[in-house]
Amino acid sequence: MAESDTITRNAKSNLAFTLMDxxxxxxxxxAQFYAFCRIVDDIVxxxxxxxxxxxxxxxxxxxxxxxxxxxxxxxxxxxxxxVQELQLDTEPMLELIAGCRGDIAPVQPRTRxxxxxxxxxxxxxxxxxxxxxxxxSPAARDYAIALGYALQLVNILRDIAEDCxxxxxxxxxxxxxxxxGVTHEDIRQxxxxxxxxQLLAYEAALAEKFFCESEELYMALSVEDRNALIPAxxxxxxxxxxxxxxxxxxxxxxxxxxxVNNFRKLWFMxxxxxxxxxxxxxxxxxxxxxxxxxxxxER
Length: 299
Hints:
Structural class: mainly alpha
CATH class of the largest domain: Mainly Alpha
Number of domains: 2
Order of helices and strands: HHHHHHHHHHHHHHHH
CATH topology of the largest domain: Farnesyl Diphosphate Synthase
Largest sheet: none
Mean pLDDT: 90
Strand content: under 5%
CATH superfamily of the largest domain: Farnesyl Diphosphate Synthase
Distance between the termini: 31 Å
Helix content: 55-70%
């Protein structure tokens, strides 16, 4: 088994789940690209490395992507071959590396503009390259950017406690926190207050804006591009459901980590394939006794 397949399977991420129905060659390339994204993210997050070692490891990947060094057998060779075979524009991949590099010594964004500049590097650029690898035309770029913003904002809301506890990172804009009177200490102490809920609802509205924008952009694409982007649409349904769960639960992000179980992910894959066909709303898993325990376990 290729190293990229092993990394993708072990990650058990939402993105990895949506790749299973792609044509074989496209799935292989997406697994290679996903493995690259996973590795550069882990370089920054995994314990046991000094800042200097992290920067050096990211430098190495920049050189591999831009064909400045000879890749070693394994994942380096796989990623290098993918870039060469697909003749990828490497700028988004380099932007991703730069975004991850910024998390080595994280600085809280002061404004929403600074937050979106960060999200562009670590999420929108992933979407741009993913769309290309999946076979979409350059017309899908704006869709990929809008969806990347939406997914990253959901991640930030969902992981606010973990990012603070494990990495001392604060991604919510300082200006927004000041607007609602929320402090770093409130997040560190996991104070579930009215002001905290209002802040998180304010950021959730921004995520909702980008979900709506991405849907409008998707519907304006050609049929060929929409078909190529079915995994991205499935991701949108998964993450929008996570956002809805947080909204319905009044953002109890300090108590649980919101997720979607595999049964519902399969349903979203079907809905993404069906495209614009009107489908009935899927009943809450909580209403199905057989699946209730599974849904609670995955929360």
